[in-house]
Amino acid sequence: MMSEATPDDGIASPFRSVIEVVVRALVDQPASVSVTETQRQGMRLLELRMSPGDMGKIIGRQGRTAAALRTLLAVTAEKHGARAQLDIRD
Question: Are strands 4-5 and 43-49 parallel, antiparallel or unpaired?
């Protein structure tokens, strides 16, 4: 099954919101942060894009910041009875 975009009804999903708020607080160029949410095989897939210069801040030392973001997303998804995955793109 191909990915389907979730409908944009003007209300941000809790998955997207939590990632956007945290990432925008961490980067130097918060305006360049975008999170796209799609649904694939019963799982929410969030694609995080930002300025290439901010990539190191989001990955963190030995990937710790990226792992923390993924954990935060997993906890949010579990609270809402869903599964979610975070892909970090440049």
Answer: unpaired
